[in-house]
Amino acid sequence: MKYQAFSPKQRLALTWWMPGSGYADFDAIVCDGAVRSGKTLAMGLGFFLWSMTSFDGQRFGVCGKTIASLRRNVLSEVLPRLEEMGMRWKEKRTENLVTVSFHGRRNQFYIFGGRDESSASLIQGITFAGVLLDEAALMPRSFVEQACARCSVAGSRLWFNCNPAGPSHWFYQNWILPAAERNCLRLHFTMEDNPSLTSAIRQRYARLYQGVFYQRFILGQWVQAEGRVYDFFTAEMTRPAPAGPYEGWYISCDYGTVNPTSMGLWGLCRGVWYRVAEYYFDSRREQRQRTDEEYARALGELAGGRPVTAVIVDPSAASFQETLRRRGWRVVKAENNVLSGIRLTADCLKEGRVVICPECANCLREMEEYVWDLSSPGKDRVKKEHDHAMDDMRYFVSTVLGRQEAGFAACAVERRRT
Fold first, then answer.
1. In angstroms, rounded to a whole number, what is the distance separating the alpha carbons of residues 229 and 212?
2. Which residue among 60, 255, 336, 413 is buried most deeply as judged by most CB within 10 Å?
3. For residues 33 and 17, is the Cβ–Cβ distance under 8 A?
């Protein structure tokens, strides 16, 4: 078998667990990134080398989306190379078991497929000294967490690899972002980390994709690729808020009790509406709810003494509207036609009439995660997920810019002070 020299990142995936590597105290490793970046082979070899030099007489888990894909993508590549290194292996297909022997040591590797939620039951009850999860982002969370829970042998470690999915994916949120907190080594791979790819092949892959698919498949970024509502939107379309002067101010609000509450502060400068600041509170994440009075105080802090023409509020939030009125705010019920609002918002973003400033991190995050519901072909509707800043932005555009286009003139009135 012909070998290419491993890249530095591949060598690290192979050897991170060795004493003196600088990473030997980590409990887990995640290799994520671009397609064809060489992470699967390096991690598979590293996992078996670690297992066979660190343990004897132990059981390990090797998991993929399906057993067939695991045999095709991992075992068929790794096992022949292990044999060339002097290891001996024997597979019992009826038991989904591979037994490997090396220098007097013998360990068992059980093969599992994490196809759906029911797969978690297949792995219950067994004790592992380590587990390799190939394409972890394609498996249900219940299966992955059950596999991790099986690793109770002293010195056990967790090995994950995957291509990226959307930024709201549970694996990205629970393993990639908090890798340091989990004592997990994260290695991000690109095609440059695979020395077996020629420059011509890498260029061909780069030509195949564009937009978010280029970001995900070529750059290995966790971006939303399927069904994005504002799929044209890129980070280059954001701009810092200008110094002014501003000709008008509005606040838009999507109100939630269990769901997040999102508010945007909009300022008009030289014909462009800028979302210059935001307030975002997720009661599930914070594990507490806020009252209407608390939200009203937060809205006042967001306004910061600016002469706000009106607060455009979710039309279903009757109690919050009344709280704001009692505090002296002019309240306008938002226009709430979803599809026409999305079309108008998209037009305004493309034309540069509406700009989101970098300070609005939650709005920018939701721009990547706000997607069409593809489960019902022929029906145009969005998923009711990651849509709170999207709704408050749509409320503003539909109510202020939509009415202006229809000949409605919004007059600034002085806000009553209480």
1. 12
2. 60
3. no
